[in-house]
Amino acid sequence: MYDIATDHAPALSAAILLLAFSLVFVRLLRFLAGREADWAVRLMEGFNAASPMAKLAAGLMLVSGAVHLALVPGHEGITGFLFIIDGLGFIALALGAFTTTWWRRPAALWLSGTIVAYLVWVIAGWEAPDQVGIACKLIELVALGLVMRLKNPAGTAWPRRLWRATAFPLLVSLTTIGIWIGGLVHPDALHAHAGAVLQPVASVATPEERVAAARLLADTKASLARYQDPAAAVAAGYKPGPVSDADPLLHFQNQANSRAVLDPDRPQALVYARTPVGLKLVGAMYQMPRVGQWGPDPGGPLTQWHQHEGICFSPLGFEFSFETPFWTCPVGSGSITTPPMLHVWIIDNGKSGPFAAELDKAAGRELTGRSGS
Amino acid sequence: MNQISAIQSRIEIAAVLVTLQASLSLTAGLSAIPFGIVEPGFRVLSVLTILIAVMMFWLARNLRRRRRWAWRWLVSVEVVSLTITVVLTLLPIGTIRGPVPVLVNLVIPWAVLVLLASGSSRSADPRPGPADPA
Q1: Do the chains contact at A51 and B1, CB–CB below 8 Å?
Q2: Which of A34, A86, A201, A333 has its CA 20 to 30 A from that of A305?
Q3: Is the pLDDT confidence value at A136 over 90?
């Protein structure tokens, strides 16, 4: 669900370059301090006197600063301007950790402000949450947690102790929820619904692509005619998947077809709707052998493949939920990404069309009599 | 800076990371509750996840207090977590895709283990903590 935005990719390189640069910088500082350059001596003394916590917090702020500055070229207007201010602020505070005694409180405010600003931007739809942004917030959260624990005041009153114990977990939870809200409220064009990522395609189908899509639909309908009775599907090697109360559809899969690629005679799965009068064949599902391997799309934008990402799968009862933006699942379930798939609906799939990622809601209601379909 | 404060600092970093892990688990557990309405398995898993998150908060708190049992429990939890992630990563199911899952599911548990190993209270303070059953 959360990919790496193209204009955010340079930030990852910046973070890696910063690590290499920091090693060279510390060596240079040692060299200059050995030559008794005043500023280098002062910085080196501060660095040597700092605890590993302060050093790590400063290092993480430097990474965040570098990431923000690397993102400036891809962001115009107020966002780009704020990235410059933010990046420079983080670098100044990271250096301040070794040269001042008062950096802790400004650093906590700067980190909190940056995280809150990101949430505002994401929820407002001014910035799409992607993995670079989320990883950066994770780094800032760790830095904030460290900064908050650097000072350990003894004998403080209970409201302050309670705040110290709960503020960090609360901010982590709010950040997770905020990013989630932003991602769900403002999905980008390649997200059909939460968890399904669409294959990038051209916006308009050519006449040839329309013909090819119609041919695929006709061939699939002809091939599936023999499987109207689920017993025929089972006899042909298809096995019904687990039944879930949450899903009105039942997929019958045939492992023998796992290597076939968009072959109407050998679809990977048959899709049946669980209607009040029994199973009704509603379509086929073609699936590629590997994750991330988009299939051929003869119909261009009409036959757009999709893959499910950010899914928590529980083998206990074959159930699914969504991962959090920080890629965590409930205990006992694991994160999975499915290989790309293409559904071909042989029934009237309403406005969604015969190649939609999901069964049309109205068509599903009509078939199953369930409001959630 | 003396050796003790360096070790205390490592323990404190580990406690911050464990608190972060606990907070992320808590959110994962809470977010699974709506799925539990139609998926009975997730009812159990969400409650279990919230309980484990609370346990992790408790372990982080007692790690700061230098309890040996908290240290031992955390090492066990992180080793199990890291092992499961590595096994899932080796399967062709796309568990690790991008920097966020790498940081959350591999780097942080590994960092906590390294910090716990280097900041072992055994090397800093041979006395058992007040709540240590040993």
Answers
A1: yes
A2: A333
A3: yes
Indicate whether B129 belongs to any domain. no
pLDDT score, position A190? 58
**Chain A nearest C-alpha distance from B71 (Å):** 19
| Both tokens assigned to A325 | 């933006």
- Full-model pTM: 0.85
Task: Mark out the alpha helices in A186-280 (DSSP H runs).
Answer: 207-224, 230-235
Nearest Cα neighbor of B10 from B114, B127, B123 is B114
> What gap in Å lies between CA A131 and CA A3, rounded to an integer?
6
Mutate to test the interface with A, among B18, B19, B100 (most CBs of A within 10 A): B100
Q: Which of A316, A333, A335 sits opposite B101 (nearest CB)?
A: A335
- For the record, the structure tokens of B19 come out as 């608190």
Considering only CB atoms, which chain A residues are within 8 Å of B86? none
The answer to whether the CB of A325 falls within 8 A of the CB of A180 is: yes
Give the end-to-end CA distance of chain A in Å, rounded to a whole number: 22
CB nearest to B100's CB, from A134, A312, A336: A134
Q: Is residue B32 part of a domain?
A: yes
Q: Is A314 on the interface with B (CB under 8 A)?
A: yes
Q: Which domain holds residue B108?
A: 3-121
**Which residues of chain A neighbour B1 with C-beta distances below 8 Å?**
48-51
Give the pLDDT mean for A48-77. 93
Q: Which sequence spans correspond to the domains of chain A? A: 6-188, 193-368
- Asked if A330 and B49 come within 8 Å (Cβ–Cβ), the reply is yes
Q: How far apart are CA A170 and CA A166, in angstroms?
A: 6
Residues 6+ apart with CB under 8 A from A205: A213, A299, A300, A301, A302
Q: How far is CA A334 from the centre of its chain?
A: 15
**By the CB < 8 Å criterion, does A3 face chain B?**
yes
Which residues, numbered 215 to 254 in chain A, qualify as contacts with chain B under a Cβ-Cβ cut-off of 8 Å?
A: 244-246
Q: Do A62 and A87 touch, CB atoms closer than 8 A? A: no
Tell me if B60 is assigned to some domain.
yes
Whether chain B has a CB inside 8 Å of the CB on A294: the answer is no
Q: Does any domain span residue B132?
A: no
pLDDT score, position A371: 58
CA distance to partner chain B, nearest, from residue A25 (Å): 22
ipTM above 0.85, yes or no: yes
Report the gap between the CA of B15 and the closest CA in chain A (Å).
9
Q: Which residues contact A41 (CB under 8 A, 6 or more apart)?
A: A33
pLDDT digits (tens, 9 = 90+) for A169-223: 999 999 999 998 988 887 765 555 546 788 888 888 999 999 999 999 999 999 9
The count of domains in chain B is 1
- Provide the pLDDT confidence category of residue A15 given band limits of 50, 70 and 90: confident
